[in-house]
Design a protein that fits this description.
single chain; about 210 residues; alpha/beta; Rossmann fold; two-stranded antiparallel ribbon; 6 helices; about 40% helix; about 20% strand
């Protein structure tokens, strides 16, 4: 059975465009791949704690000296196992102040683990999660994929780097842009993104059996 992990990170609840699109993807996948196991991890509604002085030693080195450390390591282990089990990863990532939500960054801080999702060797870092597919849905108020505002896009390059560091380099970005450019522009952007998502999770998707 294939495993699909969907990570939502919007802080805007049901009004979130990225969450609307990840939900559409989940609905399509549930119909087309009824045997698949779909796991929903909503770090926007149920945030992963940010790193602290007590949680960092536990997550990075397995040094557990406090209850916070024990809880942090247990959560990190669970998040890593969810990610390792997934054949397909779908991330809903709205742009907040030119980058990803801090809650999504906190999720990455818990799953980027040396010797578990990446390792260092004499030739440099190596990702250990090769062979996975990822779809990242980016919701943006402005236009950042081209034009003068492109230099302010600290969202997509960061996400690509973090995923690639773990060996996930088969990544497709679905950009929903111009959401603040008026109702017509927003509706057109969402409709186009829905079509793109439907095409990406369609029957041709090669998920592991």
């Amino acid at each position: 059975m294939s495993n699909i992990l969907i990570v939502d990170s919007a802080a805007t609840g049901e009004s979130s465009v990225s969450r609307r699109l990840t939900r559409a993807a989940a609905d399509i996948l549930a119909v087309r791949y009824p045997e698949a196991n779909i796991v929903l991890r909503d770090v926007g509604a149920d945030p992963v704690p940010h790193l602290t002085e007590r949680s960092v030693p536990a997550i990075r080195a397995g040094i557990v000296e406090t209850e916070e450390g024990r809880e942090a390591l247990a959560l990190s282990d669970a998040l890593v196992e969810e990610l390792k089990a997934a054949d397909l990863l779908i991330i809903g990532a709205p742009m907040y102040n030119f980058g990803m939500p801090s809650t999504l960054k906190a999720w990455f801080d818990h799953v980027l683990r040396a010797r578990l999702t990446f390792q260092y060797s004499e030739s440099g870092p190596e990702g250990l999660l090769k062979g996975k597919k990822a779809i990242v849905i980016e919701a943006r108020a402005g236009l950042y994929s081209e034009g003068p505002a492109a230099v302010m896009d600290h969202q997509e390059p960061h996400l690509r780097t973090l995923l690639g560091f773990m060996g996930i380099d088969d990544v497709t970005f679905v950009r929903v842009e111009k959401l603040a450019f008026g109702p017509e522009a927003a509706d057109a952007a969402i409709a186009g993104a829905l079509l793109a998502v439907e095409g990406l999770v369609g029957p041709e998707l090669d998920l592991a059996a």
